[in-house]
Design goal:
Helix 5 runs parallel beside helix 7, helix 6 runs antiparallel to helix 7 and helix 10 crosses helix 11. The chain is an alpha/beta fold. The two termini are 22 Å apart. Helix 1 links the parallel strand 1 and strand 2. It has 12 helices and 20 strands. 41% of the residues are buried. It has an 8-stranded mixed β-sheet, with helices on both faces.
Length: 446
Amino acid sequence: MMFDLCVHIGTRTSKECEHPPMALIVAKFGGTSVGSPERIRGVADRLIKIRERGDRVVAVVSAMGKTTDELMALAAAVNDDPPARELDRLLSTGEQVSMTLLALALEAKGYKAISYTGRQAGIQTNGTHNKAKIVKVHNERIERALDAGYIPVVAGFQGIDANGDMTTLGRGGSDTTAVAVAWGIGADICEIYSDVDGVYTTDPRIAPRARKLKSISYDDMLELSSAGSGVLQMRAVEFAKKWGVTIHARSAFSDAPGTLVKEESLMEQAVITGIAYDTSEMKVTIRHVPDTTGVAAKVFGALSEAMVNMDMIIQNTSLDGATDISFTCPEADLPRAVETIGQMIEEIGADGWDVDEDVAKVSLVGTGMKTSPGVAARAFQTMSDNDINIMAISTSPIRLSMVIRAADGKRAVQVLHTAFELDSESVFEETQLSAEEIAAKMQKGR
């Protein structure tokens, strides 16, 4: 189901493009893409273009603009601690508005369309409200609609559990819906449209010479997503890797090709694929913890039960039989983390805790790191040469993460990007070219 990236302009030939004839495509559109009636009509035009070139397409949509945030605010206005089930019922309405409006826009342009909620589309989940996981996709209804000539429009972010209750998949869950639908119906590719035009070596707003990647492996994309890159939801990439779904991350406002996320090629990988930057994590330190067997297990067991997602864990050298234990966690998990620690401070015999919000995490990611020694040494030397202090370090075979002061974060990304030779020769390379110019450039390069 994987094929090379191409631009559809005019008549397509086998020499110009390896796109399979009569392809089946799932096209997901984010909140910015459907943020207004004008943009919804633009999405309808894009879907019609896909149909007119002879392909079949299923659309998956997020809620319009900031609708989800507005619904969360409404819930908070009437209940400080809304029940998870009722919150899911409320939040799921956002996608139902955008799916219906897109179907109406397609009908107005003379194309048969039919909208489906997550339940109607056959998205079955477990019963974990607000963070449900997809367990099965019943594809019959979507396939019948395609066979009847309709463009199905599916509400992202939502599903149904075994009790018949509406569930939501968590922030960015529409990406996961799209990948799951693509797998369920055997689509050739899952196109994720957003307000960014692909995956870059780092955030081009921080490093203007960042390069857009033509392709990236599942593993590298997973690490970038988990380290703070917001292009694709991590769970969507996990699902795609598990079931072999090729993702094409691209812009909703341009015909330019984006970035393919697929199984890594057999060719030698670059040492560093990209650099992620994240300021959404906090560092929590438990002070003067008795350095005895079982204390760490008790602390992190309790945090795990409280559903606190921990990233880096650091334990200082024991002094006089006690030590400091630090960990990082997402800002959203901080209230649960602090509450849990507060309840067990006396039990474990610690002196108290501190929260440091003034931190940033910078992560180097690359499959090539597995076979390339010296990455850590170069990274640490680069930070030292630029007087950037490293507060914590975490490594995996394809990722090196460093916690530093937030004020140093952007500068760290810039100097590391240059040190590992990720800079392009020009600023925002290719991102301002038209589809025709990109196609001509690609043809010339063959």
